[in-house]
Specification:
Blueprint: H1 3-6, E1 7-10, H2 14-20, E2 26-31, H3 37-48, E3 52-60, E4 64-69, E5 72-77, E6 81-88, H4 95-98
Antiparallel strand pairs: 1-2, 2-6, 3-6, 4-5
C-alpha cells in the first residue's frame, strides 16, 4: 500500500489541536482500515519528512443518525473508520497541518 493510500486526511478538532501543541506533539489522522501501525509510521515519515516515535490506533464505531424528510424520519448510521494518533520526536512539527 502506498503512503498516500494509507493516510486519508488529518483530523482537525479542538481536542486534536490541543494535542499538537506543547510537550505532547501528537498528530491525528484518518487512515485506511487495512493499515497497521508500521505502515502508518512509514507513511508519515515519507509524506511529511518527520520521525514518528509512537503510533496508537483507534477504530471509531458507527454512530446512529436520523434525518427528517417529507415522508417521515429516516434512520441510519455513520460509517465506521480508523483513527491513528502519531507521536513525533521532540521539536518536530508537520508544517502542512500547522499552517506555516
Amino acid at each position: 500500500m502506498r503512503a498516500d493510500q494509507v493516510i486519508i486526511e488529518p483530523v482537525l478538532t479542538e481536542k486534536t489541536n490541543g494535542m499538537r501543541g506543547g510537550e505532547k506533539n501528537k498528530y491525528t489522522f484518518r487512515v485506511n482500515k487495512k493499515a497497521n501501525k508500521v505502515q502508518i509510521m512509514e507513511a508519515v515519515k515519507s509524506l511529511f519528512s518527520v520521525n514518528p516515535e509512537k503510533c496508537s490506533i483507534v477504530n471509531v464505531k458507527a454512530k446512529p443518525r436520523s434525518s427528517r424528510t417529507k415522508s417521515g424520519i429516516r434512520a441510519g448510521n455513520t460509517a465506521p473508520w480508523k483513527k491513528a494518533i502519531v507521536t513525533l520526536a521532540k521539536g518536530e512539527t508537520i508544517d502542512v497541518i500547522e499552517g506555516v
